[in-house]
């Protein structure tokens, strides 16, 4: 006997969303930075359960909602595999000295007369290498803040430069979880997303760097950056720093440019990192493995540990010690857990028609391409303000708008770019968001103090909206047929 399904009312569709927002806000209030350790994942599951109860009242069966969950999770499977490989790659790149070399040479450009420009640039380099704005701010960011304050600069201005660079790298690095999450939700691949995102991201960071350069040149920044030299010395004492180490990232970039799929490119980059660890860092390999009698056995142990678990390489400097730590594949499990739970919630909401009901009002207003992309950006910022988590600010709007973009002939990379331009970068500007809470507490600078100087984070959503209204680089399906995606990139 079939049960007649009815369309959800707006207030019914909003109940799970409002419950989720309340639970997430409560988790941030109670658990703070630890909210991502599990409480937010459970909040997603509780909200999904409530959505399921409403779905049953609407006439949907459990099997139908379960099928929706399976379909939702399947869209993220590629991102999950990539995240695991990213954890392994980060480990071998640390073990081989590739990431330390990037940091070492990046610090070379620091000059007191262009400190703000350099702080932003160095933060961008480190974040590109690590794929994490959080670790960048918590390590090199602290050192840069101390240097800048010694030079007499405003701590809000320094923090703004650091965060602008860190979130550029977080947004553009293939090692970043949000950079993998956005295309997975939107329905495109990682490297297409990165290549397409460059059109809005590069102008945004160039404008930001020019602003920091102008501000920096108008300040008297005479002084000695001894802290930077200490960091470089600590890295050089532990690792054999060589320009040859950059052959590995160059090879990975070449594979990306050659449009090799993400999984094999990252796997090759991971294995090359392991090979370079044997060649350039035998002492570090022995330190990580704890095996000194058998180099081959020690090398195997160190390589495996760097890929699957957390490793930490002490360098005798507190800042460097914190930087030279990576979680391997196991360090990605919390993010994967969050993605799965978010996809469960999104699957129930989508299969019961509740997401469609919520977006109908927004989409009815978004009559043009410009207004559609603007409404997407505003929705991402809204979820950063209300849900207090950047992952949800990507996942939920991504699920909400994906079908609309396709129906209007817009390729999914338009959506994934908008999600990153507005969801990823604005999270750190919200005092009660997990990102804003973390960065303000790590740097010791209140969110509202550094917010006016986070030029990259403020410019990015405006840039994507401007591109939309000016009809610049809005890629469409061939012959307006959204059923079949054109995988070529028109740049």
Describe the structure.
This protein is an all-alpha fold and 491 residues long. It has a domain at 10-66 and 332-480. It contains 24 helices and 2 strands. Helix 10 packs across helix 21 (412-426) and helix 21 (412-426) packs antiparallel against helix 24. The termini are far apart. The relative contact order is 0.16. Mean pLDDT is 84; it is low at 221-225 and 480-491.
Kindly summarize this structure in a few lines:
The chain has 491 residues and is mainly α.
> What's the alpha carbon Rg, rounded to whole Å?
23 Å
Unreliable segments of 5+ consecutive residues: 221-225, 480-491
Q: What class do helices, strands and sheet pairing give?
A: mainly alpha
| Binned strand content | under 5%
Oligomerization status of the protein chains? single chain
Largest sheet: 2 strands, antiparallel
Report mean pLDDT, rounded to a whole number: 84
Query: What is the element string, with H for helices and E for strands?
Result: HHHHHHHHHHHHHHHEHEHHHHHHHH
User: Strands of the biggest beta sheet: in what spatial order?
Assistant: 1-2
Helix count, DSSP H or I runs of 4 or more residues: 24
Shape summary: globular
> Roughly how much helix do the residues carry, as a percent range?
over 70%
How many β-strand runs?
Answer: 2
Distance between the termini: 54 Å
